[in-house]
Amino acid sequence: MNKLDLGRRKLLSRALALGAITTLPGCDFEDLTHPDLADHVLRTMLAFNDEMQALLFNPRTLAPTFPASMVTNPPRFNAFYGMAQAPVVDPASYQLELGGQIQDKQSWTLAALRALPQEGQITRFVCVEGWRVIGQWSGVPLGYFLRRIGADTSCKYVSFKCADGYYSSIDMASALHPQTILALDFLNAPLTAPFGAPVRLRVPVKLGFKNPKSIMQLAVTNTYPGGYWEDQGYDWFSGS
Amino acid sequence: MGRSTYHKPRPVHPWPLRLMHWLNAFAIVMLIGSGWQIYNAAPLFNFTFPETFTIGAWLGAGIAWHLAFIWLLMLNGLSYLLWGFLSGHFKQKLWPLSPKAVLRDLGAALRFKLPHQSGVYNAVQRALYVGVIFAGITMVISGLAIWKPVQLWFFTDLCGGYYIARYVHFTAMACIVAFLFIHIVLVLMVPRVLPAMITGGKLPEVQS
């Protein structure tokens, strides 16, 4: 039987050798115009993950709801710019523009949106970074709105363009989910500028960055619209 | 003709085990490195992991690596569990396991009096291997709980909600890292066990 031989120098040199072989290149999604092998592997796996997430998505599974006492107030601000830089949209002159596979592409004023049936929810907002807050949003169910405007709900995507240059898109199944709403209010008061005034998407079956704020244009399409973060490497489906 | 007395030497580690071991090692390193990058975006504690040890240049890349390698980890882990039960590997190598034997062998190990026997796991090894299998299962369940708190809500509930699931995931990671540290230190101390995990090795002849 061997005696345990613990030569300290030997141990150290072996540990260093092990460290050297486990050093991995970190060059991924850094230069989007010059994708390397790692980028191609990751894009392939992201596409596979999107398909798996679409399979896993059950349109009847509801996001959990919470009591009003658990609402995070004030809410947590997050964007690709500081809170003071948030765009301010004049609610009086606001028009939601429609495009793509929609029969009635007439723009919607805020008053017209408020005249539609409203639904409220207290749901969990999970950020891709890992933190979560709970909020109370209310507004027009997106599924109701899409049918009302004569959208072709057999299309694959619903896309959004925002006042701050942000853009995103979701799959039609998630758009038709009963808890997906075009939110107008937070805690029963109109949304404020940093939190998406006058209209934001609230889709509790997706991560936070799939909830675009200050939406100016909505389109229904079969052409993949991508998104601000999605184009940089976040997985597009990002379902919860 | 009499019965042949020649037996083909049995390997210390059969090939499915070796294959799964190295696939798992690869997946674990990628998942821990990318997991640390993801952790850094919203730290649970008052520290972040140094960039040198994270995989993925930023959060998006960290998530992409993590989601790419969960499939390797889960498929490989599932194959390992099935193989372990069906081949009798778990029963032969990890059983029986009693707290008394663990304490006895742990005492011997700390006094450097626990010999290494090829192909036989002492009680401390058994406890560590069973422990790390459970840590791996916890890792997958808490990971699914964080990834899909709506669709896979039962895993999230099982972990005590989304918020606590992140701590469960972190704790299981810490257990696996601690296991890896012990595992690698022991291999560095008894380096002759390493080739057997690559080539299979030969079990010592049994003298009768």
Tell me the greatest interface.
Answer: A-B, 47 and 43 residues
How would you name the oligomeric state of the polypeptide chains in this document?
Answer: heterodimer
Q: Average pLDDT of chain B, to the nearest integer?
A: 91
Count of discrete structural domains of chain A: 2
Q: What structural class do helix, strand and pairing data of chain A support?
A: alpha+beta
What fraction, in percent, of the residue positions of chain B are helical? Answer: 55-70%
Write the CATH architecture name of the largest domain in chain A: Alpha-Beta Complex
Number of strands of chain B: 0
> Structural class per helix/strand content of chain B?
mainly alpha
Cα Rg of chain A: 23 Å
- The named CATH superfamily of the largest domain in chain A: Oxidoreductase, molybdopterin-binding domain
The name CATH uses for the topology of the largest domain in chain A is: Sulfite Oxidase, Chain A, domain 2
Order of helices and strands of chain A: HHEHEEHEEHEEEE
Number of strands of chain A: 9
Protein traits:
heterodimer, A: 240 residues, Sulfite Oxidase, Chain A, domain 2, 2 domains, 5-stranded antiparallel sheet, 4-stranded mixed sheet, 21% strand, B: 208 residues, mainly alpha, 8 helices, 67% helix
